[in-house]
Amino acid sequence: MSGFRVHLLYFAWLRERIGCGEEEIEVPAEIRTLGALSAWLAARGPGYASAFAAGKSVRAAINQSFAGPEAAIGPGDEVAFFPPVTGG
Amino acid sequence: MSGFRVHLLYFAWLRERIGCGEEEIEVPAEIRTLGALSAWLAARGPGYASAFAAGKSVRAAINQSFAGPEAAIGPGDEVAFFPPVTGG
Amino acid sequence: MFAIRVQEAPFDVGAEFAALTAGRADIGGIGCFVGTVRGDVGGRALAAMTLEHYPAMTERALAAIAAEAEGRWELLGGTIIHRVGCLLPAAPIVLVLAAARHREAALAATGFLIDWLKTKAPFWKKESFADGGEVWVEARAADEAAAARW
Amino acid sequence: MFAIRVQEAPFDVGAEFAALTAGRADIGGIGCFVGTVRGDVGGRALAAMTLEHYPAMTERALAAIAAEAEGRWELLGGTIIHRVGCLLPAAPIVLVLAAARHREAALAATGFLIDWLKTKAPFWKKESFADGGEVWVEARAADEAAAARW
């Protein structure tokens, strides 16, 4: 079973820990949710591990809308990971 | 027993009904409170009667501070009568 | 720490913001309210609004309201400007600014100041309608209730 | 009916008031909040604050917040401007304006907009201190609580 491609974005200290702000990657087909994607990314290397170790304080958006760990992901999605927002 | 002089000011529709905005008058000595002064003024003529007939919707200040009908008045006081305020 | 003015002339909101905040790196938020003359009252076209006040008392009353706000919130400064005289529809009537370290105090003080201004400062509004009628604005029970909640 | 902008450049509060209210005799009150960069954090001197955002998402998120405000109050217009990039102490960060017939709606919407902006729009602040340290600002539980009360 082949995987699918997603476009990933990282902001603030997640971007700094991972070392890049944006990447296009191939995800295994069995990754169906945001939570599964986070766990899979955390295993990609020490920068990712450090970024996703923060667990609950990592937030995400799918296709520019805030989404929780149960949200479904699929081919071509833009998925962004970031800390809780602090604008205003 | 001689009376005492007070400086009176009228604002908004009280001024219009009484026909003047400001006057210096001699008040009988037995007038000791704002309430007594209002009642005495109401008897001075039809303009005053019309102005003070509004009763509860007439407010007042003694020497530039809001005051109620029980407040004491005395020689030289500046007493202002006006409707409830509507600024802002 | 409050700038307080009663004037016939219009005010410049941007200039008042600048005057309040110039060189102030301790301020984190500024709340502001501007009240303006609406061009109709229940559909009846307004020609002008005239604001009368009690000059000897007004600035004292405004200073007392500002002092009350400063006692309730940690403010870093503020501004109250209230216009008097004849104002046309869309004209600004009143400006309130309140600066603080955090937005909670700035916004609460702004709401407090305008609510108290409406019920505790000696101003009276007369509406002159396009049909020639004139009406002294009556105090609203809702304004008393708004002032009383603080 | 909201003007929404995300920009590096400063904004002019007076010009934004004028743009919102020009020729509008239906407006009775305008609420406003301006957030600024404080020059210290718990006594530690700040050199600058950097605001990062998620460009593809930001304007959409701001439009959603404005739409929510318009659904809750009868607004006659409003403005949201949020700056990004490197900002020095005392610099303005964010401007919110809300216009309505009466002050209650204008002030409530102003408070709502800034509370929701703080918790529902994709901006992140990094503080750079004069001592060389850098810290990403942490979300405050108080901000979540403020946003949740609406």
Describe what this molecule looks like in 3D.
The complex is a heterotetramer, with two copies of chain A (88 residues) and two copies of chain C (150 residues). Chain A is of the alpha+beta class and 88 residues long. Chain A has one domain: Ubiquitin-like (UB roll) (Roll), CATH 3.10.20.30. Chain A has helices spanning 12-18, 34-42, 46-52, and strands at residues 4-10, 22-27, 59-62, 65-67, 78-82. Chain C is α+β, with helices and mostly antiparallel strands and 150 residues long. Chain C has a single domain (2-148), classed as Aldehyde Oxidoreductase, domain 3 (Alpha-Beta Complex). In chain C, the strands form two sheets. In chain C, strands 3, 4, 6, 8 and 9 form a five-stranded antiparallel beta sheet that branches. In chain C, strands 1-5-7-2 form a four-stranded mixed beta sheet, sandwiched between helices. In chain C, strand 8 and strand 9 (134-136) form a beta hairpin. Chain C is globular. Classes of the chains: A alpha+beta (88), C alpha+beta (150). The interface between C and D is medium-sized, with 35 and 35 residues.
